[in-house]
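Postdoc handover notes: sequence design on the structure in folder B. Input tokens:
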């Protein structure tokens, strides 16, 4: 989404220009960006950027590699974050659907309902004191 940010990451981690375009380094750049946005407290920015970078990692990882399931699990976990989910539903539901497709979660509704129930339980506990 933000090429300047990717270039800054590439420069910071000394990824040379000719290697920057290589597949492996592309994934590395997305991992650095995902780590950054995972830690940010700016929920709007996190909702815009984190799913994108996790999607790019998953989509560029071969399905035959052992780290493909982990990449999909990270993307699923991100999409189940209620703030991210709500933001994506509001801003770009088609992109959200595209991300779910690569995360390969056939039972999206069930997983989402479980996530909502957990949030509800947290709210009830916080109200109880």
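Designed sequence:
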């Amino acid at each position: 989404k933000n090429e300047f940010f990717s270039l800054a990451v590439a420069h910071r981690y000394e990824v040379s220009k000719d290697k920057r375009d290589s597949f492996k380094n592309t994934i590395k750049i997305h991992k650095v960006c995902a780590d950054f946005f995972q830690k940010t407290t700016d929920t709007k920015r996190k909702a815009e950027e984190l799913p994108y970078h996790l999607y790019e990692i998953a989509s560029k990882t071969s399905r035959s590699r052992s780290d493909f399931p982990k990449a999909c699990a990270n993307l699923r976990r991100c999409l189940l974050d209620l703030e991210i989910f709500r933001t994506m539903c509001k801003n770009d539901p088609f992109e959200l659907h595209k991300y779910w497709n690569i995360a390969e979660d056939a039972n999206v509704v069930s997983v989402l309902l479980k996530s909502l129930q957990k949030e509800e339980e947290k709210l009830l506990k916080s109200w109880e004191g």
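Context for whoever picks this up: The radius of gyration is 16 Å. Don't rerun without checking with the PI first.
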